[in-house]
Write the structure tokens for this entry.
Amino acid sequence: MNRLLALVYDWLLCQLGVTGDFSRLTFDANQVKLLAVALLRTSRCTAHAGVAYRTAAGALRFLHFANHEVLRDEVFREDLCLGENAFAVPLLKEEDQDFLAEFCARVYRANQSGKLPYSFEFDPTLGFDRSTGLMVFNYDSGLTCSTFVVAWFRSAGNPLVQPITWPRLADPADIAARQYVLDRWRESRKPKLIARADEIESTIQTMRISPEQVAGACLQRNLPTGYYRASKNGRQIHHRIIDQFGEPNP
């Protein structure tokens, strides 16, 4: 019943237009004062999500789960993917954003050699210890770039989404995006990625929280948000990226 009530409430707010504040969406990295969800377009059917944050020295860095067992924290560059980037800035108190920026560095330091697993199957209870930054997870599940962002925000005490409101099965577009990842891994000829593709392919139809939905959730005034509003915001972000940069190359 809790899931049904959450779904109905989220759907009703979506119908009433209680959706994202797009004044907090920017394509200019210089407009990220402290923290944002960064969305990088990588292909026609996929995008990549991570956390952009400012250091005390003012540098913009990018914390992201780049691939199976690859967590990165690097200086943000416009050419990280296609140079087609958007930033969704959360409506949080400055002191909360300061903590989150510091939490980025803490999580990276604790997990840079931890070999975090890539998995389509997401455990909503998975997260990072607030004090140590260490990942607490079940190896039967794991992360994608977008569920890394979800787990990171929730662990820091600022949850973005209500996973209970997401459809339990992926739709055709979700499956296509996941198949794109598996195909690229197999084409890489890297034994570890090929083996992981074989391990997780059977879960390709499980619930998917997409990069666009994570960025879309970040634009809500009140968090966490549900599937309908995050999805509607995410679709608008997708259209605005196309308006800004044009259609992606095949």
Remarks:
- The chain has a mean pLDDT of 91.
- Residues 227-245 form the longest helix (19 residues).
- The CA atoms of residues 14 and 142 lie 30 Å apart.
- The chain has seven helices and eight strands.
